[in-house]
Design a protein that fits this description.
single chain, mainly alpha, 17 helices, globular
Length: 402
């Protein structure tokens, strides 16, 4: 009886999740985890016959292999309890993501279009919230007693990738000009938020996606090659070229405190990777005191010429770079699986051209830009956003090239 009830109302649940993703993130920054839990559990209940079909896809198997390797790293981890805890959380997120995607694949094409419409409405409502908060002097931030980063970074990053499925719907429903105008409007809104990663990530997606619109095969193959090379060589390249003296030279051109701090962290992380690059230090050990807890005093030169000390842990919670985090925690196997994941996504997108190539490449580039310079890759809310939006985007694609 309960299963029939779930099946009857599943389309409504999908619509609500798509609509609430962005506006709810404005008020509760990490609420995407709740939405994925609801959608994933519903999918597991009503789509049991489709679950195995979803799991056995190459992309899904690569994600699963990365998570299982992380679980295996518990046996040599600096923090076995922390590694096991994160493995359990990642595996749970994976199961929920499979359930959510399976749920989407059972929806008729017209319902998927309606789902995209509700996502667009949710983004538009979020623009209203951001506009009101900006012109009223950020009352929401003051009410919650949060810094601007804690208050608005998650919603800004979510918007920078949610725009791509909405763009695809706008093109299919209306025209490309309206879709592009929507992307540029989103870029304008993000410029008012204290999170420079979001607008730059969206801008990178617009540029590379725009090139892919005209040359999808060339961009896809080039991106496949570059992503694999960069991921597999990044810690060694940083170790060779990004010395402390080189960071000081860069600091004479760029004076942003957080950017220079991040370069110091990456340089330090690259040194630690050299010492243990085969198996890594274990899943979620970036935050462990024995790995990155030592105190560091670096310096940054401000635009006024003042030398200001940076007192920080060697690794403040995580490397703020997905490939470096894969290398540091999971070694060469984790990095290879991360590279394979990018390769498979690009291979899938290379089947399409036109607006799908533009929005698909834009979604992947924006997501990668964020993951490669801002976040800890394993954050639950971030992975939930990727599952929700990635599944929604893929479910909207036709089976043929377009």
């Amino acid at each position: 009886m309960s299963q029939c009830l779930f099946a009857k109302h599943q389309r409504t649940v999908v619509f609500v999740i798509a609509f609430l993703l962005c506006p709810l993130s404005f008020f509760v920054p990490r609420s995407a985890t709740w939405l994925l839990t609801i959608g994933g559990l519903l999918g597991l209940v009503v789509c049991r016959s489709r679950i195995f079909e979803t799991v056995k896809s190459p992309l899904s198997l690569t994600i699963l292999a990365l998570i299982l390797w992380g679980g295996l790293s518990t046996f040599w981890s600096l923090d076995p309890k922390g590694s096991l805890t994160l493995f359990s959380r990642l595996f749970g997120s994976y199961i929920l993501g499979i359930g959510w995607y399976s749920l989407l694949k059972t929806q008729p094409p017209n319902d998927i279009k309606v789902t995209q419409f509700y996502l667009f409405l949710g983004i538009s409502l979020t623009f209203v919230f951001l506009t009101m908060d900006h012109f009223l002097g950020n009352p929401w931030q003051e009410l919650c007693l949060k810094t601007s980063a804690k208050a608005f970074v998650p919603i800004a990053l979510t918007l920078s990738i949610a725009v791509w499925p909405a763009m695809l719907w706008l093109h299919m429903k209306y025209n490309s000009y309206l879709a592009i105008l929507f992307a540029l409007s989103t870029l304008l809104f993000l410029s008012f938020v204290d999170c420079d990663t979001a607008p730059f990530g969206l801008l990178a997606g617009i540029i590379i996606g725009g090139v892919a619109y005209f040359a999808p095969k060339l961009v896809g193959r080039t991106a496949q090659f570059l992503s694999v090379v960069i991921i597999l060589s990044l810690p060694f390249a940083i170790h060779s070229f990004l010395s402390v003296d080189r960071i000081h030279q860069i600091n004479t051109i760029f004076h942003n405190f957080s950017h220079i701090h991040r370069l110091y962290v990456w340089q330090n992380v690259s040194e630690k990777i050299q010492e243990h690059w085969v198996r890594g230090y274990g899943l979620d050990t970036s935050r462990h005191e024995d790995l990155g807890g030592e105190k560091k005093t670096w310096t940054v030169t401000t635009i006024q010429g003042d030398v200001v000390p940076i007192n920080s842990k060697a690794i403040p919670m995580h490397p703020h770079n997905a490939p470096l985090q894969w290398w540091l925690e999971l070694g060469v196997v984790g990095a290879a699986l991360g590279a394979l994941l990018h390769f498979q996504c690009l291979s899938y997108l290379s089947r399409y051209k036109g607006i799908i190539a533009l929005t698909g490449m834009g979604l992947l580039v924006s997501s990668s830009f964020i993951a490669w310079i801002n976040l800890g890759f394993w954050q639950s809310w971030w992975l939930a956003v990727l599952w929700i939006l990635g599944g929604l985007f893929i479910s909207f694609l036709p089976d043929r090239k377009t």
